[in-house]
UniProtKB/TrEMBL annotation:
The keyword Transmembrane applies. This is Uncharacterized protein. Residues 69-86 have a biased composition (Low complexity). Keywords: Membrane, Transmembrane, Transmembrane helix. The chain crosses the membrane at residues 39-60. Residues 69-97 are annotated as: Disordered.
Length: 246
């Protein structure tokens, strides 16, 4: 082995001797390489961080690449609505004049048209038959009332109609009610049993349901909103009790 190494050394020649300058140059080159690697790494990390932040802002709702400023929320104040002196749907318009003395209730002298009739009538008032298919009604009004069309509907008329109470298995029930007749508060209309709605706060009308037989389903419904009669409920019940079906 020693001979072989000697032969190789002789062929290659002796290694050049290293000087201090050579060692210093190698050390400087190594330091510069380390600094380049650190700078490159820092730059790459900053670029990656900036990319992540940019993606995050882009994903926030309500923001765009063109405008990343926070949006100021605005509120809308509802426009005040005009108020009215009466609820929606309430009848409006003038009322006919109320008499100083109530219209007298007198015996009927002429026949009613149709199948409904009353033995007592408002003095001087006339009757008119109204037909709507099979539905028959009688309207009473004052022929001397001038220009009645100017007044609110139903405020110058009495109307009569015929109805049959419905049987739902727990007693006869008049229309516009949900309770059986036997459970409703009764009043007497002449000699007949009746149910009165009283004066409506909505349109001022009163409806009286007059039972024609003590146990039967038939009733006559008297609707009174006539301001120009000046009647109280006692007079209305007396009139309604005189009405029947021919």
């Amino acid at each position: 082995m020693t001979d072989l190494k000697s032969l190789l050394d002789d062929a290659a020649g002796q290694e050049p001797a290293l000087t201090d300058a050579d060692l210093t140059g190698d050390l400087d080159r190594g330091r510069r390489a380390v600094r380049r690697r650190r700078i490159t790494g820092i730059g790459a990390g900053a670029a990656a961080t900036a990319a992540v932040i940019g993606v995050g802002w882009a994903l926030l709702p309500g923001l765009s690449a063109a405008n990343t400023q926070p949006q100021v929320a605005t509120t809308t104040t509802p426009t005040p609505q005009p108020t009215t002196d009466h609820p929606p749907g309430r009848p409006t318009g003038p009322l006919p004049p109320k008499p100083a003395v109530p219209v007298e209730l007198v015996a009927r002298t002429t026949q009613f048209p149709g199948r409904l009739t009353c033995d007592l009538v408002p003095k001087g008032w006339t009757t008119k038959l109204l037909l709507r298919g099979d539905d028959e009604q009688v309207e009473l009004s004052d022929p001397n009332l001038s220009n009645p069309e100017q007044y609110r509907e139903y405020t110058y008329q009495i109307r009569l109609r015929w109805a049959t109470m419905r049987d739902e298995g727990h007693g006869l029930i008049p229309d516009k009610y949900s309770e059986p007749w036997s459970e409703l508060p009764h009043v007497m209309a002449g000699t007949k049993e009746a149910v009165s709605t009283g004066k409506s706060a909505y349109d001022g009308r009163t409806e009286v349901f007059v039972r024609q037989e003590k146990t039967g389903p038939r009733v006559i419904v008297v609707t009174d909103g006539a301001v120009n009669l000046g009647w109280d409920e006692k007079t209305l019940l007396k009139f309604a009790g005189s009405c029947s079906h021919k």
